[in-house]
Design brief:
25% strand; Rossmann fold; disordered N terminus; BirA Bifunctional Protein, domain 2; binds zinc ion; alpha+beta
């Protein structure tokens, strides 16, 4: 018990210092380590296993919708990056450049990809000629680099892992449909796999992606009321296609430019999981992406038959779940807190008395609820417990989102909420970038998250300038 207490004491309590809590958890749960290059992170096996589970789930969703994976080069020639004006202006401040090959200065600088629109376009120019070549539904899993000033593991790093989908379509309608389809694909994934609710909608002109005509976003709220942009989907129109001279001959024999989309999610999602579900004992992982779903902790391990039984359970459960048996000589108390820290959804305890009664103990990570289960019904009990846990995590996160969402009808109300209540603010907006900038300035960082799909006319005038309102916007601070 003393050991167990010590480990938990090592984490800063969430309510005392949320940022410190986050740093403690990612270190103690062995998700990442810092590297010698500022802003780059070492993703340790336990953290990487979470990413692999995320990847596996999303990849299956993308493929079910007809997408194919490709791999593009890491480097982009400067002239290629500059082809689309808005795009290069948007990314220029955070691009890292390769200037030398060995000892020799390159005749043209090469940028390390911050995103790969330009590379895909160059390739699409070569392979798209006819309407028969469309749509092209490509996706890439890779790393990208954006030279960030302030960084935090998972949330904002100079190098990160992601997927970027880039698709080309014969018509605007089809491309717009794809843009929204992929946004909803992310929304489903967040809800059904990560147990994270979110506000979804369209970014304002000011916040949209460099070069896009429309950007859609999924915005979950972290435990402390701060937003995390969880994934974006962009409609590009034919802007890039024109800049890269991509054309195809349509059914009517006319030469046309195809319409383009891109969409991506990254290792930031791991930050969202930690900050949505975690508690003062460490990580709490949604079962579907947990590297270990059930940890078996033998009690009185030295007693005859205990380890044999534990191994027997491991062998039978492993066919269906990701299971670990910890038969190390650490005390059960140490193991309990270790796997709580690591957010393992279920702990299975088995000792001599349980074996006598043909039962074991299941303990849920989220609420520590203890359940005696007959070994004859173990599989069903585990399945039900994991499902209940997923649902409970979702409900808890949803309650947090609802309780920290406020409505502002006047300028004063807006400033008061921004100052005193961490969370999202629903307020009307006239459509002017100036008002967005003013509100951000006055509040020290509250920005428009999106114009949600579910709008409500909470008043008739802009919360900033008092002119007639065009939209309801959800506002909030962000990571
Ligand atoms: Zn206004």
């Amino acid at each position: 018990m003393a050991e167990q207490k010590k480990m938990v004491d090592d984490i800063t309590a969430m309510d005392v210092d949320f940022a410190k809590w986050y740093t403690d958890v990612i270190k103690k749960a062995e998700l990442v380590d810092y590297s010698s290059v500022k802003g780059c992170m070492i993703i340790r096996p336990y953290g990487y296993a979470i990413w692999e589970n995320i990847q596996k789930d999303l990849d299956a969703r993308f493929k079910a919708l007809g997408h194919e994976n490709v791999y593009m080069p890491l480097l982009i020639p400067e002239s290629l990056l500059q082809r689309e004006k808005d795009h290069v202006e948007g990314f220029a401040p955070e691009v890292a450049w390769v200037t030398h090959g060995g000892e020799n200065k390159l005749t043209e600088r090469l940028c390390i990809r911050p995103t790969s629109e330009t590379l895909f376009c160059e390739h699409y120019k070569d392979i798209i000629h006819s309407y028969r070549d469309l749509p092209k539904l490509y996706n890439q899993w890779c790393n990208v680099m954006r030279w960030e000033k302030t960084t935090r593991p998972f949330l904002r790093t100079s190098e990160f892992l992601w997927q970027e989908g880039h698709t080309m379509h014969a018509t605007e309608e089809e491309a717009r449909e794809e843009t929204l389809q992929m946004l909803h694909c992310y929304e489903d994934f967040y809800r059904d796999t990560l147990a994270i609710p979110a506000v979804v909608g369209q970014k304002t002109e000011k916040e949209k992606f460099a070069g896009a005509q429309a950007t859609y976003t999924i915005e979950p709220m972290m435990h402390n009321g701060v937003a995390l942009q969880g994934g974006t989907s962009h409609y590009f129109g034919d802007g890039f296609a024109k800049a890269f001279d991509i054309t195809f001959t349509d059914r009517d024999n006319k030469l046309k430019h195809p319409h383009q989309t891109s969409w991506g999610v990254s290792t930031r999602m791991i930050g969202a999981i930690i900050m949505t579900h975690g508690d003062d004992n460490g990580l709490v992982l949604p079962p579907k992406i947990a590297p270990v779903q059930v940890v078996i902790v033998p009690i009185a391990m030295h007693k005859p038959g205990v380890l044999d039984k534990a191994n027997e359970l491991l062998a039978s459960l492993r066919t269906k779940y990701r299971v670990k048996l910890d038969d190390s000589d650490n005390s059960p108390g140490w193991k309990f807190s270790e796997y709580e820290m690591k957010g393992v959804p279920l702990r299975l305890e088995i000792g001599p008395k349980d074996i006598e009664k043909n039962q074991c103990v299941l303990v849920r990570r989220d609420n520590r609820e203890k359940q005696f289960v007959s070994l004859d019904n173990l599989d069903e009990a585990i399945e039900a417990a994991l499902e209940a846990l997923h649902q409970a995590l979702y409900e808890k996160a949803k309650a947090n989102l609802v309780s920290k969402t406020f409505t502002a009808r006047t300028h004063e109300e807006f400033l008061d909420i921004a100052k005193n209540h961490p969370g999202f603010i629903r307020a009307m907006w006239c459509g002017c970038t100036e008002c967005e900038e003013q509100l951000k300035e006055e509040t020290g960082g509250v920005k428009s998250r999106c114009i949600p799909f579910e709008e409500e006319q909470v008043s008739d005038v802009c919360v900033c300038c008092g002119k007639p309102a065009k939209h309801m916007v959800v506002w909030g601070r962000q990571y």
